[in-house]
Amino acid sequence: MNEEIQKLNERIEAESQFVDDIQREFSKVIVGQKYLIERLLLGLLADGHILLEGVPGLAKTLAVSTLADTIDAGFQRIQFTPDLLPADLIGTLVFNQADGSFCTKKGPIFSNIILADEINRAPAKVQSALLEAMQERQVTIGEETFKLPAPFMVLATQNPIEQQGTYPLPEAQIDRFMMKAIVDYPNKDEEREIIRLHGKIQEPKADRAAAPEQIIKARNVVRDIYIDEKIETYILDLVFATRNPAHYGLDELTELIQYGASPRASLYLRICGQAHAFLNRRGYVTPEDIRSIAMDVLRHRVIVTYEAEAEEITSEDVVRKVLGAVQVP
Fold first, then answer.
1. Widest CA span in the chain
2. Which of 51, 64, 244, 297 is the most exposed place for a label (fewest CB within 10 A)?
3. Can you give the pTM of this predicted structure?
């Protein structure tokens, strides 16, 4: 086994050179936000979609467009509004008067990296149109089904302040997002650097640091990273503790959790743990890999009860208690 991991470490070393290059290009444009950049890279390597939540002005849009620049991928920003129609997103059939036929006009969803800005402002029809694209990696227009380009990644933003005129995402749709990342304010030194960097006449821009083919190749390596049976058990214990907290000595959570994490949580904890190990140039997953991404994978999958809301206990509080109670291998 040690020999296999050694070979895997060598493969990771060879295939992960672009990670440092991408991070270097990010630093030209974005100051700080290490957590956000790492989550974008994890989503890219684990082939998952990410929900970004934060107040306006925290460089969410800039970070996503910079990611597209660094991997030389197609990028589309779609501003979700209450009057948006599914056809505005996926495309439609257009009648050609010259020969009396219909031709397909593809929408902005046909790109590599999609920024769904303020996703909760669009009505359910538009949200469900995005759902097929996210889950099946394909779009149906009329009677034809089209495959979406690879890599394909949806990064959706939500503004936690304004709730007026929004359509909250149903739990089934939120579950499709691999991670929910909370983007926070920069510190004072970082903000000083931001005003200096972006106060120049010429705005900084990232250069290409990798190709989409390299990302797809790296994903194959990520899937091969060794994960021990004890780590798998730890993943299952974390997920099952959100469903049956009493079995894990967390009786106080029984009345606070309405629904525990879905099986997708187990799948995403595994693949995100492998991607985290890849970023750290390791051919095996450690408990720390799982713990470092557990909050992002679980926070939007644990639904708390009205009693918990009345006591101002959030799903994050529940996940923290679970992480503190479940035995680490």
1. 72
2. 244
3. 0.87
Q: Which domains does the chain have, with CATH numbers?
A: 11-215 (3.40.50.300), 225-325 (1.10.8.80)
For the cut 80, the answer to whether the pLDDT of residue 224 exceeds it is yes
Residue-level pLDDT at 270: 95
Whether the per-residue pLDDT at 254 is higher than 70: the answer is yes
Q: What is the pLDDT of residue 170?
A: 73
Query: Residue 255, Cβ neighbours under 10 Å: how many?
Result: 13
Closest listed residue to residue 158, CA positions, set 168, 173, 144: 168
Q: If you search the block for the tokens 């970023």, which residue do you land on? A: 279
Distance, CA of 58 to CA of 64 (rounded, Å): 12
**Tally of residues, the chain:** 329
Which residue type does 227 have?
I
